[in-house]
Fold Amino acid transporter.
Amino acid sequence: MGIHEMNDLKETANLDEVEHGSHGSGPRDEKDNSHPYGGASTTAGLERYINLSSVVNFGVVILGSWESFALTFQFALLNGGPSSMFYGAILVTFGVCSVGFSLAELAAIDPTVGAQYRWSANLAPSHPRFWGLIQGWITIAAWCFACAGPPSILANLVSSLAMFNYPEYVVKRWHTSLIMIATMIFPLLFNLYFRKVLDTFEITGGILHIVLFIVFIVVLVVFGPRSDPSFVFDTLTSDLSGWNNEGVSWGLGLLTVSFSVAGFDSILHMSEEVKKVRTRVPRSIIAACTVNCAMLLVFVLVILFYMGPTEELLMYPLPLIYVLYGATGSKAGTNAMIALTAVVLFLAFFNAIASVSRLIWVFARDKGLPFHKFFGHVHPTLKLPLNALFLICGVVTLLALIYMASATAFNALVSLQALALHVSYFLPILFMFLRRIRGDPPTYGPFKLGKLGVPVNLFALCYLFYICLWMPFPQILPVTKDTFNYSGPIFGAVIIAALADWFISGKTRFQMPVTRYE
């Protein structure tokens, strides 16, 4: 299993720099004036300029898996504990890589901004436009709410640092809301000049992602208090959250680990701007999955061995601060390490809103959204889907204001992202798997799974099903309005909205050009 490069671009008619035409017109060279989805000229589309270094760093940085886990691992301490964190990280590594490799193969076949919804439509055994529209709604909803994740984590980080340095400080909900809105301003402004800052941001993010990882590992191993191996490998926590069933606790603890590596499809939604897209986008997906999973597994092992007594850590909203302070004994050093971690999250958020704005733009261009003409517009000077970009920022701002009124309502909406994202991966892999076992696969691109395709797809489907099984469960018992897990009902509401859109106007409005892969 590997990435097969095109050795002679002339003989393959620039295969890396083309994507399938939407009306069955065959490959389209990037110099061609026809729109990749038919109809419009390049003045209404985007330009290809993202190089190999940027596209690989983009995928690696946007996950920021070890950083995400470091800032949220306290939730796994309540359910499952060390056993769920360590063995869960092993399961997640194999599961995420199987999903990532499956999506990379599809990206090599049809590298498109629409990704999941276009693949589902083109591979579905029947009713392709229906599956395309439903999948589009699921993916759009997942990513819109996912964009509120980095600002909320950054807000928690800033307020936790304030409490760490000024113990008398008391966090108010409106403080958190304002911090969330503030963290969005600079990523928005930088996205307006996306092309000019992209290389600098991606290189900076990639370097920080690796260098900080090494620094954290060295600091914890050299200065941290070492735990007994039995604590790391044999401790299963099932009595802190109200759940008394060890299997349920282990499954719920797994979600914290799996959440850290969700979102590797983000680079797919930048496909319109990537040079040599059919090889470089699959590379980015594979690099994002393998690199982040490997770093996550190592970090989980180290944090379990050197984080110190867990009873005290559960008292704080951001235990990582006190793990570092306990190891270094230095407030200045702790502040610096946490602040640099925030920079990586800031760059990941920059990447996220860039990716999601392209996804909204292309779905609107295929008339999958209401007001599709407005959101499908590309600014002629900036060459950016400006209206889609402002929609994302508007959604995040609205969620921040909702948090000011009700933390429960905010958590209810944001909880949708993980479930919807995993479902968005499930459908295209399922349809590809069915094509494989029927002996009717599409023409493969430069990266293919070959004989491993069936087992890899099957394992990916089983992994996604198992993860989605636990996502609607409440994390804490007894269930109240504040502890209820709203991801299931919110996801159901998205499906109902998508079905209503289909029957009201979507089946006539949605004009995604479906090309059966030959």
The two ends are 23 Å apart (CA to CA). Confidence is low (pLDDT under 50) at residues 1-44.
